[in-house]
Amino acid sequence: MNDPSSKERTLLEHISTHWTMMGDPAKFVLRYAPAIRKYLVVILKKEQDAEDVSQDFLMKVLTKSFSEKQVTRGRFRDFLRVAIRNAACDHLRQKHPAAVDQTTLEETLADRAENEWIDHWRGCLLEKAWRRLDQFQRQTNGNLYYSVLRLATDWPTADSSELATQLSQSSGTRSSPESFRQQLHRARRKFAEFIIDEIKETIRQPTKEEVAEELRELGLEPFVLRYID
């Protein structure tokens, strides 16, 4: 007899690695809304313009979403960047109809904000991974992964004895330097897994090579590969 839970896991795994098949890619837009707004600030250089375009863009996504033809392959990050840039171009063209031609405008905006887009996207991705690690700690008995990694991140020069003492005080449970180091290693591995999961969700039918390339472009490869076999 087939195991229903096994079928459910298989379906969830399939969905999580095929973002265009989810029926509503708009969910990913909302997850990365902070990166969208920051990107628009860099492009448009005015907070109010960025706010107007961001709100208009998100509203259109929620009401119209994307067609299957628009999101057939590749990284969602790249697709979304082009869509946002086009929205910014439309905004500038409407405000300044006598400005430079469309091609020149698009090239100018692309050069101006590429690095910032990657930085903002990476920031959102890491925030999602932190939230998942926090949730994992809350839902899993016997681990303090979020707490130990947060302490190690916030106090990079502190040794394990100092960090174990802080953890004992904040958690109300006794932590030795050795147990802290063990939890920290496991926490870093789990955090790396969450980063990879988040990246997989933004690549259609991701391969190991595509995930590795995305990690390199986002500057996360050294950290992740250190803790993932």
Our count of helices gives 11
Report low-confidence residues grouped into runs of 5 or more: 1-23
Name the structural class: mainly alpha
Total number of strands: 0
Strand content: under 5%
Instruction: Describe the main β-sheet briefly.
Output: none
Q: Rg, please?
A: 21 Å
* Shape category: elongated
Gap from first CA to last CA? 34 Å
Mean pLDDT, to the nearest integer, reads 79
N-to-C SSE string, H for helix and E for strand:
HHHHHHHHHHH
Helix amount: over 70%
What number of domains? 1
Secondary structure elements and their pairing?
Layout: H1 4-16, H2 26-31, H3 33-44, H4 47-64, H5 76-95, H6 102-139, H7 145-154, H8 160-171, H9 177-200, H10 208-217, H11 221-227
Helix pairs in contact: 3-4, 3-5, 3-6, 4-5, 5-6, 6-9, 7-8, 7-9, 8-9, 9-11
What can you see in these coordinates?
The structure is a single chain. With 229 residues, the protein is mostly helical. It has one domain (4-227). 74% of the residues lie in helices and 0% in strands. It contains eleven helices and no strands. It has helices spanning 4-16, 26-31, 33-44, 47-64, 76-95, 102-139, 145-154, 160-171, 177-200, 208-217, 221-227. The chain is elongated and about 65 Å long. It starts with a helix and ends with a helix. The relative contact order is 0.11. The model is unreliable at 1-23 (pLDDT under 50).
